[in-house]
Amino acid sequence: MDIGHNGHQEPDSEQRGAVERRSPVMSFTRYFAIPALLGAVATTASAATADLALPTGSASVAMLTQYAAPAPAEPEPETTRFDGVAYRVVDDAFVDQEGAWWRPLVVTTTAYSPTVEECDDDPDCTATGTNAYTRYGVAADPKALPYGTILRIPGYGDAPVDDTGSAMRKSWSRGIVHIDLRIPLRRYDGAWRSEDEANRIALAHGVRRNRIVLMKVAPPVPPASPLP
Questions:
Q1: Residues 102 and 219: beta-carbon distance below 8 Å
Q2: For a designed S-S bond to 111, which of 102, 117, 149, 181 qualifies (C-beta 3.0 to 4.6 A apart)?
Q3: How far apart are CA 182 and CA 137, in angstroms?
Q4: What phi and psi values does residue 187 have, to the nearest 5 degrees?
Q5: Residue 177 and residue 108 in contact, taking contact as beta carbons nearer than 8 Å
Q6: How far apart, in whole angstroms, are the C-alpha atoms of residue 87 and residue 78?
């Protein structure tokens, strides 16, 4: 064996021949080993891809549901207060806690007592036959507010339109909704008051313009379902 100039041993002729004879076999082995190695890599990659793939069927739905965006929250209903009571606002109507529907109305209010001084010769009976001495009610032009309309009036309460008068009809001819609040001789608590007391209350009310009252209305009818 010869020693090269760089200090490494040089193979002798027999060793060089052996290396040269083995070289084609090693090249042949490498030629076939590389595709096998690539195939193994491909198989491993496919397995990894399969692990990352989304499942199908109900499992996929369950997985997607976990990451689905939450449903938007329903908006809080708009509310308002009228005469200290809360109402739900639906379009241009107010809905009270009992589910009754009301619409705001701008009116002029006055008050009267069922006496001869303020009414006709038959002050105890309204235009609709109501007993004016014992029942609270409202006089109005029936063209503006039909008889039977229920009004909610701050400081007075709920009362029907059951009477009319020339002053109310004159106001409506000018486009003004004028209601006259009756002060009956029997109070809400059942006690009776004198005609003089009823007159004093009515006169003290005076004329109040641009007041807001509520008028009871029927709830809207839902649209009919289309025929199949």
A1: no
A2: 181
A3: 6
A4: -80, 175
A5: yes
A6: 9
Q: What is the pTM of this model?
A: 0.67
3-state helix, strand, coil in the chain (%, to 5): 30, 25, 45
How far is Cα 225 from Cα 219, in angstroms, rounded to an integer? 18
- HSE, CB side, 13 Å, CA atoms: give it for residue 47: 6
What was the pLDDT predicted at 63? 54
User: Cα 210 vs. chain centroid, distance in angstroms?
Assistant: 30
The rounded mean pLDDT for the chain is 79
89 and 80 Cβ atoms separated by less than 8 Å? yes
DSSP secondary structure letter of residue 116: T
**Amino acid (one-letter) located at 126:** T
pLDDT of 10 over the 70 cut:
no
Structural contact between residues 146 and 164, judged by C-beta atoms closer than 8 angstroms: no
Q: Which residue has the tokens 């009477």?
A: 163
Model pLDDT, residue 221: 82
Query: What does the alpha-carbon distance between residue 10 and residue 131 come to, in Å, rounded to a whole number?
Result: 137
Q: Report the phi/psi class of residue 190: left, alpha or beta, with left for phi > 0 and alpha for psi in -120 to 50.
A: left
Q: Among 1-10, 146-155, 218-227, which stretch is predicted with the lowest mean pLDDT?
A: 1-10
Name the 3-class secondary structure at 90: strand
C-alpha dist (Å) from residue 171 to 30, 110, 120, 221: 111, 12, 20, 33
